[in-house]
Amino acid sequence: MMALAGLSHLLSGLALVGFSGVTLWLLTRVRGGMAALMPVPGRLVGAAAATALWCAALYVFSPGSSQALVAQALRDLAMLVWISGTFWTPQAPMSRSLLLIQRLLATTCLITLSLGTAAHWGVGGAGGAWLATGLANAAMIVAVGGLLVVDIGVRRGGSGLRTPVLAVAGGFAMLWAYELNAQLIGALTGKPALTLILLQPAVALLILPIFVVAAMDIGRERMRLSRPAAMRTIILLAVAVYLILIGLAGAVARLIGGDYGNLAQGLFLIVALGSGGLLFLSARARAWLSVMITKHFFEHRYDYRAEWMRFTATLAREGGQGDGEDGLGLHRRVAKALAELTGSPGALLMLPDALGGFRVADQWHWPTASEEGATLSLRSAFMLQETRHIVDLDAQRRGQNSAAEDLAIPGWLLADLRAWVVVPVLHFQRMIAVVILHRPAVSRALDWEDLDVLRIAGQQAASYLAESQSQQALSEARRFDEFNRRFAFIMHDIKNLASQLSLLARNAERHADNPEFRADMVQTLKISAGRLSDLLQRLSPRERGRAASVERTLIEPLLKAVAAEAQPRRALFTGCQAGLAAWGDAASIQQIVQHLVANAIDASAPDTPVQVIAVAEQGRGRIDVIDQGKGMTPTFIRDELFKPFVSTKEAGFGLGAFEALGLAQAMGGTIEVASEPGRGSNFTLWLPLAEAHSDPPSAGHMRKVGSK
């Protein structure tokens, strides 16, 4: 007991220091705008100061002394003043009966304070013995009345009260309940409950944080416990109640005598284990408990922050179409997210079909969703989209919804008692999906909060589905664009071949008897046939272009072949450095030069020469195609020349320069242009020089030729 008394003295000192500091802090807060926090802020400061004086009495005279009881009367009076000013106002006053109780309690505190102070002032410490019993009885009366007033005030305030107000009122109630319990035990047993009395400073320290919370809440609209913290608090309170019941059962059994204490404690243990096992094994029991706690302990059904974070995380989770929780496709993730939001164990997701209705496309924990007839008709889909109505199927089945016929809910859905709610998933007034939620373990009627949450969640889920549909449409459009681009190149090459064959046919009428012309014609036909074969390969979906064969290629034979091919149209002046060779694909180099020469001829007057010159320069092979035609502006060269589908020719595709540049880059080269309007153009093809390298360029520089 001596050790407990020493501990009590230490705790009293700590409580004195703590409440003194809090009183000073609250006083500064009152001067800085405390009125924004409490209706009567000065009364809270008074309650803190009176509690500090009571702690000083505990420290100086010890708990349970008559001096401490006198200081306790002052503390109780300050607490009652704060309660009356906080929960009742002149605009909403107390009832007459409660006002009478309040005045009786205040009078008791004043009489206790006055008589106790007078007695100690007059007789000193000798008056403490005969005062203790009377002061203790007065303290019990005030504690009982204070608990009653707190209960009425809190129930009257309801959910509109802020957490700091409730915390302060709860702290006062806890202090009164503890002191009442200690005094009652002493009155019933005839002996003071010294252990409980000596632990009063510990209880005072427990209520010290509520004043800190009140001071810290200045300027805030609300401060509430999070749902996880509230649920853990409820669990701890349940455990505390269980321990108290066990202790009371043991105490009652000891008073009665016999072996009833062990029996009572054993029964309590069996009941507790049974309840815990039921909650652990039964999903229905857990759901029922969750509904009861949410209904009676929280202002809102949903913890919106936590639910929205989980909802968004479920929708955004990457994965394929597998059945694993981390591999769900988007459709199944949408069904899962909406189901988890309302506690449903499963869900169906329906998507539009070819007939304008909706058909089941995916499910989450609804294994028999593939039955025939599981569709929504066109009329049902139209009515859901127009009304944006979230359908409570239980209300439909009971006939409580007057719009049931207008919504045209199909019979298979009403007949399936697992179906609970129909949620239209709308995106900009367009219904892109329908989600049907499975009935939860503990069914309940939907309220306004459920409807609002499902409506907003459906809109967010719709944005994910719409984005997925847009990505799919974009992917298909890209495939079509790729095919069109490839076909455009083919058309460009076919146009060139047709023009070449047409010219050959016209010249054949005039020079058919010339043996040299016939030889050139046969060679030209072979080249054209080879090009057509290449075109057929490039049209094949398996052929993404032929790989460039990196080899040492002599330039002079290629230029002679180009000159021979262009000779019917225009005489070329060609010049080539002897033995000039480059790394590349011979067919690709010839195709580039042919295109550049054809463009130069088209841009020049009929009597204007075109020059092709090839030399080695700066460690690279250089092939120049020079004309004296119309020329081009720098803006056209920079912005349009090498872009596909941009052409200055009336029947041109605008692909020649683009394809030529792609072929040159695929071989590790490039094309440069120098041109002035009215003064002609100079196209320069740069290629890796074979003599300057012992090995061909790396594979990284050689890309697929013809893939452009």
TrEMBL record:
Give the transmembrane ranges.
Answer: 6-28, 40-62, 68-88, 100-123, 129-149, 161-178, 193-214, 234-257, 263-283
The protein's GO terms of the molecular function aspect are: histidine phosphotransfer kinase activity; phosphorelay sensor kinase activity
Keywords for this protein: Kinase, Membrane, Transferase, Transmembrane, Transmembrane helix
Question: What domain of life is recorded for the organism?
Answer: Bacteria
GO cellular component terms attached to this protein's record: plasma membrane
According to the entry, every stretch annotated as the Histidine kinase domain falls at: 489-691
Cite the EC number: 2.7.13.3
Tell me what this protein is called.
histidine kinase
Q: Which organism is it from?
A: Sphingopyxis witflariensis
- Organism lineage: Bacteria, Pseudomonadati, Pseudomonadota, Alphaproteobacteria, Sphingomonadales
